[in-house]
Amino acid sequence: MRLRLKWKFTWFLAGLLLFTVAVLSSLVLQGVRSYQREQMENTMDGLARTAQVRITQQYVTGTPIPSQTFMKIEGQKLAIELSATSHHRVILYDMGGTAVGDSLPMAARPDVQSPLTYALQNKIAYVIVGDTLQYLSPLSGPDGQIGVIHFESSLKDQHSFDRELVLLFLYVGLAVLGFGLLFGLLYMNRHASAISQLKRAAEHIQMGRYLEAPPLTRLDELGDLSHGIYDMSKAIQANIHTQKQFFDNVSHEFKTPLTAIKANADLLQMYGDDPAMTHQAGTAIAGEASRLHALVEKALQLSAMGTYAFEHRPEQVPLHEMLEELCLRLLGKAEKSGITIHRELAPATIWADPNSLRHIFLNLIDNAIKYNTQGGSVTVCTHAMHQQVDVLIQDTGVGISEEERKRIFDPFYTIHPDRARQTGGTGLGLSLVKQFVEREHGKIRVENGPNGQGTTFIVTFEALRLQV
């Protein structure tokens, strides 16, 4: 049977309290009984001393006679007198162990042979039988011991007190056990509830529902564990987001060369008898295939290393040359769609990662072709001024409304869902483009084209100062 944690702690706490009460009760009872014994011995010793003084006085002031004769003559009278003053039964014995006086001569005489023998050796002896104390003390005269005095005392009140004290501790123990269970359950229920919250939080993480805040706010170990689970949730979420972003980037990196390969393959089918076109298309396909192979190798390498991000290696990039190369790579796709690509590329050099720049401008030029009108055009321009470089990519498509321009860089947002499905768009391209631009410390914005026709994307980077 599975026992819940709160019950384990509750029973442990109650058991610990009960054990503590039992130990304390035992120690207190031992202390009380030790104190009672000490008080009883002191009381009986005081009575024996008083009796000794009275018997010595009677013996000294009377007619000089042998001690044993004195005990036989005066024993009964002295026993009655001493009983009246001590409020205890008194029995006097001579040195032969014979009772010579008894304050209660009609009552049954207790068997005290063993302690009497001990007391006749001038030693104090007592024995407790049931609720009765038999206390025997030696009596001394001028010439030595003359006999033994025996006090019989009732211990009923003392034993009744002991029993009441035991019952009191028993009731206290049961009360402590009950309250320990109650308050232990209430107290441990709070901790068990906190542990259950942490368990549910772990189950949510297991199901992919990540935490937005620590499940508990406490200043103890459970609070530390709560923050640890929250940090773990954030780390897992960030790792999964990084992986997803990596796969999105890889898919887009694959998509562009595959699109170029397909477009050039279509050109080969359409103009297979044109040697110049065949050479151009074949060269483009070979270049894109090599780039695609390099991407696959890099992706496999990063996956094996557990790293989900392409290396960022900035260097000096002649931006006008790269844009010229990219326009030529997409020329086949543009011609297939009846789109003309115009290039106005002023010399400009920036410091950036070439792969990131290729991703940015391939996506922007590809979109300009994809969402253009039949027979339209794409214009790619560079302007270097005021220590910055602006790259303009204009198309003659249907344009983008102001409301749509506010959301165009949101992940998975597509302006024309039907056309996106036809062209294979996912709505991630521009979102990734913006991320790459910002990683290169650049800015991107979108505006309407000239005379309100089409769309213009403007990407701005800091120009590189070349030292001569």
TrEMBL record:
Enzyme Commission number(s) of this protein: 2.7.13.3
Domain Histidine kinase: 249-465
Broad enzyme group: transferase
Catalysed transformations (reactions): ATP + protein L-histidine = ADP + protein N-phospho-L-histidine
Kinase is among the record's keywords: yes
Topology in membrane: Multi-pass membrane protein
Main location: membrane
Gene Ontology terms: cellular component: plasma membrane
Keywords noted in UniProt: ATP-binding, Cell membrane, Kinase, Membrane, Nucleotide-binding, Phosphoprotein, Transferase, Transmembrane, Transmembrane helix, Two-component regulatory system
Identification of the protein by name: histidine kinase
Lineage: Bacteria, Bacillati, Bacillota, Bacilli, Bacillales
